[in-house]
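Task: complex structure prediction.
Instruction: return structure tokens for all chains below.
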Amino acid sequence: MEISRHNETRFLAATGNEHKIREFREILSQFGVEFVHPKDVGGIPEVEENGATFEENAVIKAKSAAETAGMPAFADDSGLVVDILDGAPGIYSSRYADTDTARIARLLREIREKEREAGLRRRAAKFVCVIAVAYPDREDADVFRGEVSGEIIDEPRGENGFGYDPVFVPDGHSATFAELPSEMKDSISHRHNALMAASVHFERVRRDASDVLR
Ligand code: IMP
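Output:
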């Protein structure tokens, strides 16, 4: 069996978002992967997210961190993709306005405008999360995508979560992400689905590492 050169089991989490680090650590600890906090490597530089896709932005962040720290690193990029807005806000989800309240207000305003123009109601949307894993000595990165489909409602509902959660109702549910208990959101979310795809990769890496030790 060919053993991967990349059988490290320590990965730098290339994000400043403690909420994300906790989620990553919780879900992936079961795969024998140890996550290194950015603070443990003296911090990671901010990079300009100038990619045209979630994939490109996740790879930019992961590669920059892997090169700076000289160790494998992963990063995620996520956002809301709305059908009637031709995919907006997409990769610009966090830059759509200054606060979550303003972002939601802009989203609902633009959806209503488009619906008026088109003379129909169209609320389909999805959250997307892409996780990239990069290595300091490798040009390419591994990329994993997770999605959750749903619809945008007319008025925000619920206090949990963050971002666009109060106006997003996932398919198969009647509550918004902000009304669902956090364990429920965490078990069906785009981030969860991307982490599950990445887990399969991490599990393989761990097995390769234990094969080497044997
Ligand atoms: P980033 O991945 O940290 O760049 O986040 C992108 C933006 O997408 C966030 O600032 C939120 O506005 C939005 N977003 C990403 N994931 C979620 C989510 O789980 N719920 C609500 N909004 C989200």
